[in-house]
Amino acid sequence: MTATPVSAAALAEPSPYAALAALETRVAAIGFRLTTANAAWCPVQQPQFGWIWGDPRLYDPDRRVEALAVYGAGDRDAAFIAGIAPTAPAAAAGMRVGMAVLGMQGAPVPEGRDAHPFARITAIEMQLAALRPTAPLALDVGDGATLNLTPVAGCVSDFRVEANEKPGAIADGRMVLVNQGLAQFASDDDELAAAIAHELAHNILRHRARLDAAGVDRGLGKQFGRSARLFRQTEVEADRLSVWLLAGAGYDPAAAASFWTRFGQREGRPLFQAGTHPNWRDRVAALTTEAAAIYAARATGKVLQPPLIDAPPPLE
Ligand SMILES: [Zn+2]
For the CA atoms of 250, 251, 252, 253, what is the dihedral angle to 10 degrees? Predict the structure, then answer.
């Protein structure tokens, strides 16, 4: 046997940040499509640029150089674009992954209020979300260069990817956080879009604020009694709306049932969600019912009209 020479580069492990960066662009694209294609249904809108932000402050100092190199970002302490939807106006205007953003509308980007690694990104996103949804935006991208972008009006939500192997996602009212493990679990973009649409539906339906207003227990009491019942109600609502968000954005409405079936059957699923989440078989039955309603509306040429958005039932 003769050994085949292998170059040192081929032997080198790919950086874990490369997979993270690829997923950020994928989630940016899905989030942009879900929020903008469904904008007309959303009672509150914000500008959507189709990007996910990055910041050198997110990385341990000993990994920072490696991470920034993956994104093609410079080594200065500036927020940068970590992922961008290929169809977004930001991409058409010349925005690219790794590009630093030093200023917006003629002022330096906000620094954020505390030392949390995400503080600057959060401050930037909140400042942008408060702008008129289609107002042009001038970005200082360094070296005296300015990029002028016109966003697309979309439903409320920014998107973030977490380097977390657990197949989970969170909606906090203004943000959808997608774990890397969730994207690995989804079989394709339609299934990943189904999971993201569920979280986006929580934000569109203002579940976090409405649960807080209803005084639910977010601690141990979450699993029991009235709090558990109200959490379950929001889960059912997010499931129902998610199927319509998929359909409205041109994804396969059946992907919701297929994703949540596999998710419900997976090994090692946490039992502690038993109180706050409906049984997965009931969820899949409800998702299938919504998809059937969409197919029926399409077959008769009716305009799709999603449930819940205009008047979600009270949480009480
Ligand atoms: Zn949920």
Answer: -90
